[in-house]
Amino acid sequence: MIADLDRHGTETTVGLRELVGSGARQVAGCQYAGITLADKTKTVSNVAATHRYPMVLDAIQNRYGEGPCLEAVWQHHVMHVEDLNVDRRWPNYQRQALEQTPIRSILSYELFTDNGSMAALNFYAEHPHAFTDESLEIGGIFATHVALAWSIMRRQDQFRSALASRDVIGQAKGVIMERFNLDAVEAFELLARLSQQSNTKLIEIARSLIDSEHPLKRRNQAERGA
């Protein structure tokens, strides 16, 4: 699955849930909302949702590779399902959605495409023809807001991750410098060689080295070997 909620930073996950909840309240006729994430292999996951129904509908789309949210993602436009009872564009999705949920109206907006990942913001209602022209307009404005906010949050997550990685690599360099009497540049070059030779990410090499130096871990290993 390309993206469980845990793939995103905790703050980003919370932020997206808050945005989706706000959208559900502001778009006239909407009862539930969610964000669908998909990739070019048609693998689908739910990033945030106000209720289990959006998650169920994303699971159906993942199973059959069809549905309005995927259509919005792939075709780069807005999808409006006025009455799922009579909309037969996605027969497998329609059948399962009618059986498993009371959802009858759907609005889906493309959010972004990035490195093979694509996302859509979706609004749902239990009644046919729940969304008016005003709903479509407000939904589009809100989708633009979510896309911009998500982009900012993702960059913040990447920055925090980069800082954490830098600290870990710095600690690993310190271990190597002390153990092998090397300077900082030589220690980093050794880490880089180990990474290349083992085909392992540098940050993972660094974490393994730090873990092996941790006194509690050494004690546990010694106890297991006794």
UniProtKB/TrEMBL annotation:
Keywords, ordered alphabetically: Kinase, Transcription, Transcription regulation, Transferase
Domain named ANTAR: residues: 149-210
Transcription regulation in keyword set: yes
UniProt cross-references to Pfam families, sorted A to Z: ANTAR (PF03861), GAF_2 (PF13185)
GO molecular function terms noted in the UniProt entry: kinase activity; RNA binding
Domain of life: Bacteria
Name of the protein: Response regulator receiver protein
